[in-house]
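U., I forgot to send this yesterday:
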Amino acid sequence: MDFYQKDFDPTSILMNNRPIEDFEGFSSSDMHYLIYNSFSPDSPLQINKSIPDNILDQIPLFLQIEFLLSKINDLGELKLTPKGFLPTMLVKEIYDLGLIKDDEIEIGITKLYAETSSQPIQLTRMITELAGFTKKRYNKLTLTKAWRDKLLKKNRQDIFLQTFATFAQKFNWGYFDGYSSQATGSVGFAFSLFLLSKYGKTERPDNFYSDKYLRAFPSLIDLFKEDQFGTAVIRSFNSCYSIRTFDRFLDYFNLIKIRTDVIPYLDSRKMIKKSQIFDHIITFDN
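Result:
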């Protein structure tokens, strides 16, 4: 009896499972799963294990990765450029699918040429490697046997789940920007998904979500400072969270719809709403 009393304090268990306002009613135990074991069977986050093809066909980043994997399979091996990037012709093929447009290319600031000229295409190649779909040897990409088998068997579900989990947990969300915090957005990404699940039916400004995220993870703002242009700390935090969570994560998976309001004499305002496919993919046990 003394052993169990020492290791399983009922008061501690009660506190761990008590709903907390700043966590939107989740307990600290729930949040531990959302942060450290997001895809565990015991996590409040649940990803649909049988997503139909007509839903998968609406997920841009997944389709780009699927296209690249099929291309590598057809070729047997894909020779990369001397610097380890996708060849230019393949970059153009992927971009011409029209799945993810690059704003800087579309408005003429940059031209599509190398892989590095388009962040979404560079991300596609990086995810294929991080996910273990491919292996690189002698500057050539080939499919790993396990994932080649899944591709040939059209096991799209497993490829999607691996793509989604890899982006969420292995990819460095700060890779494409210069914000001082690497953790913002990626830490607690599952909590952001919950916020969309709960509030996303109604269109809301992006800072509605960044404010709630900050309430749950207040220490993340400590890594931000007012910059040389006088941008306030909270504004930098909100911008970092919004770009990473909405523009580069949820939009690439078509889990949200973004609308930009242009307000005279003020900055534009980003309005967020969950997409029609969101609830077909993500649910929460709360």
